[in-house]
């Protein structure tokens, strides 16, 4: 529905445009008689008679006088009556109207002008255009405003203005009983929706922002390079254009423009709309109206990824304090001595051993019980069993405490961020001058309102890229970033940055528009349809939900081997010591065996030598006996 405030000549339009003009309303001020309100007919007739008498050539007839002529007459008549009363109360009867003697006409003024204005404000009469009364607080007449609404309708000669409605302060809007009000579409049914954006040219303001509005260079087949806008916002504009049919005139705001400055640009008429990652805030809503949500937003804290924590060599000992470890060792030694004393005589296995061997066996027994092993040695006395039971219970509690505390410490010792969420910022865990905020953003407004009490003690930055770079350069420790941009940049671009905690200051991104913008309802309906159809979710998935950075998350149930490397080293040392003892024992046994072999060989050699000597002696003796026998025989 179109409403104009001035009439125009309909004959200038081609007949093909007549259907588009049908139903248009022309709203204009009028005289009281048109609205069936009383007028001063005596004064009007006297004025017409004088006009016709002195200037008959300019008198158009009583029914052809323009309404604004009636307004001019009542204005002149008000001045005449006010001057008449003004002169009646002044003391200078010769010249009641006294003006200053300035040479320039616009510098001249009426003396006692306040008195004249008071007279006008207190006057009330019935004029030729209706009731006349003024007030110092308004430029309009009091209870004397009258309007007429003319409706464009078809007529036998084409189209024409037809009086359909009239208005007065006393009765309000009234329909003309002799005519019908025709609405757009040449129907008697009033429209149920607002103005449509079909065919309307809109100046759209955009601002460069990663993934929302990106600028890329595109080279065609001829080698010509042009810039192109891509991202969540350009895709959203394309969807809205398809649904609403408006003509977009996209203009990119300067890089140094703030988000608050974009809102001011809408107020000042630089842009019809601004489509950007612009958060709805109370201060901005005072200036403009906002559409339905185009993006559900919250603020996230971006920090540097913490390096892996260096685990101490003997960190497996950390669950228990050193004095507790010493107490445990002392308890084991003391318990071993007690068991050895009470079991030395009663236990036959200990009785057969020497004192040192028995004590070592008891220590092994105690240590085996402490480690949960089944040791063959069993106490025989009641005292020994009581001591063993007490040590078993002590062992149960110590191992349970050790296991729980070790798991807790290893979990906590994993790489932890410097902060866990917004509560750490509120508690002052990060110095205020190490907090980076985007100037002119909703995040800055939240910080000043909720965290710093209006104190601008933050680290000011002028683009999101500066926030990320400042984090990498260790100029700041925390950056406040909107959720979409933060998730994309930490998942795809800056793999050494991460998000701490959950979102806060939950809000929405929306499109700002001037207050009373007639197309607001059409835009809101289109945005709701896009949300219901899932198009907005698809845009979010397209531009924000993909990840190129490796996943550095580690299950809390897993324990890094470095945390227990000291324990394994102890185990290795014990193993090496055992191998050494075993090898030493084997070497000792080998030496003993070699010596024994040497002795056996030596013994065999000796026996062989003795046998040879005996054989030689026997042979020599036999030869002697044979010789003796021969000699005796000869004799």
From TrEMBL:
Domain of life of the organism encoding this protein: Eukaryota
Cellular compartments annotated: Membrane
Keyword Ion transport: yes
Domain Ionotropic glutamate receptor C-terminal, first and last residues per copy: 215-546
InterPro entries assigned to the protein according to its UniProt record, in alphabetical order: Glu/Gly-bd, Ionotropic_Glu_rcpt, Iontro_rcpt_C, Peripla_BP_I
Stretches that traverse the bilayer: 324-342, 354-371, 383-404, 563-584
UniProt keyword list: Glycoprotein, Ion channel, Ion transport, Ligand-gated ion channel, Membrane, Receptor, Transmembrane, Transmembrane helix, Transport
One function term, GO molecular function aspect: ligand-gated monoatomic ion channel activity
Stored Gene3D superfamilies: 1.10.287.70, 3.40.50.2300, Periplasmic binding protein-like II
Membrane topology per record: Multi-pass membrane protein
GO cellular component, one term: membrane
Pfam families found in the cross-reference section: Lig_chan, Lig_chan-Glu_bd
Family matches, as PANTHER family: IONOTROPIC GLUTAMATE RECEPTOR
Name of the protein: Ionotropic glutamate receptor C-terminal domain-containing protein
Organism of origin: Rotaria socialis
């Amino acid at each position: 529905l179109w409403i104009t405030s001035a009439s125009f000549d309909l004959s200038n339009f081609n007949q093909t445009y007549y259907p588009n003009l049908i139903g248009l309303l022309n709203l204009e001020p009028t005289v009281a008689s048109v609205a069936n309100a009383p007028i001063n007919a005596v004064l009007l007739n006297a004025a017409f008679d004088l006009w016709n008498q002195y200037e008959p050539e300019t008198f158009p007839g009583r029914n052809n006088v323009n309404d604004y002529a009636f307004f001019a007459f009542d204005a002149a008549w008000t001045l005449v009556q006010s001057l008449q009363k003004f002169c009646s109360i002044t003391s200078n009867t010769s010249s009641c109207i006294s003006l200053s003697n300035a040479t320039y006409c616009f510098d001249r003024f009426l003396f006692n002008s306040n008195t004249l204005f008071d007279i006008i404000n207190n006057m009330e009469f019935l004029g030729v255009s209706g009731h006349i009364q003024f007030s110092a607080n308004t430029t309009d007449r009091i209870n004397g405003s009258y309007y007429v609404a003319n409706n464009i309708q078809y007529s036998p000669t084409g189209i024409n203005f037809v009086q359909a409605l009239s208005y007065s302060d006393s009765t309000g809007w009234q329909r003309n009983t002799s005519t019908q009000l025709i609405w757009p579409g040449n129907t008697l049914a009033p429209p149920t929706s607002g103005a449509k954006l079909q065919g309307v040219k809109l100046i759209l303001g955009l601002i460069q922002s990663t993934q929302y509005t990106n600028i890329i260079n595109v080279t065609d087949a001829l080698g010509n390079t042009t810039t192109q806008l891509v991202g969540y916002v350009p895709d959203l504009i394309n969807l809205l254009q398809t649904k609403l049919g408006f003509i977009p005139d996209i203009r990119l705001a300067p890089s140094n423009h703030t988000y608050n400055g974009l809102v001011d640009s809408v107020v000042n008429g630089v842009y019809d709309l601004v489509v950007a990652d612009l958060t709805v805030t109370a201060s901005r809503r005072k200036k403009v109206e906002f559409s339905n949500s185009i993006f559900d937003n919250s603020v996230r804290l971006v920090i540097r990824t913490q390096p892996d924590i260096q685990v101490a060599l003997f960190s497996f000992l950390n669950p228990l304090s050193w004095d507790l470890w010493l107490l445990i060792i002392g308890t084991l030694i003391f318990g071993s001595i007690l068991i050895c004393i009470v079991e030395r005589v009663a236990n036959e296995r200990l009785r057969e051993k020497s004192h040192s061997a028995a004590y070592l066996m008891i220590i092994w027994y105690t240590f085996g019980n402490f480690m949960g092993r089944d040791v063959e040695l069993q106490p025989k006395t009641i005292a020994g069993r009581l001591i063993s039971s007490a040590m078993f219970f002590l062992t149960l509690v110590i191992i349970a405490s050790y296991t729980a505390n070790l798991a807790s410490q290893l979990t906590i010792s994993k790489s932890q961020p410097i902060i866990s969420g917004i509560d750490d910022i509120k508690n002052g865990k990060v110095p205020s001058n190490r907090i980076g905020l985007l100037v002119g953003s909703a995040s800055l407004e939240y910080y000043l309102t909720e965290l710093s009490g209006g104190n601008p003690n933050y680290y000011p930055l002028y683009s999101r890229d500066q926030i990320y770079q400042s984090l990498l350069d260790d100029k700041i420790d925390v950056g406040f970033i909107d959720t979409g941009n933060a998730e994309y940049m930490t998942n795809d671009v800056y793999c050494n940055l991460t998000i701490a905690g959950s979102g806060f200051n939950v809000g929405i991104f929306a499109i700002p528009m001037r207050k009373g913008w007639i197309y607001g309802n059409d835009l809101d309906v289109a945005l709701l349809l896009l949300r219901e159809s899932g198009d907005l979710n698809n845009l979010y998935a397209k531009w924000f939900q993909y990840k190129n950075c490796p996943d550095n998350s580690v299950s809390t149930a897993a324990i890094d081997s470095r945390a227990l490397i000291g324990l394994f080293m102890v185990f290795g040392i014990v193993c090496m010591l055992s191998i050494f003892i075993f090898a030493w024992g084997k070497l000792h046994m080998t030496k003993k065996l070699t010596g024994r072999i040497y002795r056996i060989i030596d013994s065999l050699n000796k026996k062989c030598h003795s046998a040879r000597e005996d054989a030689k002696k026997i042979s020599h003796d036999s030869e002697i006996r044979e010789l003796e026998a021969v000699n005796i025989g000869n004799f």
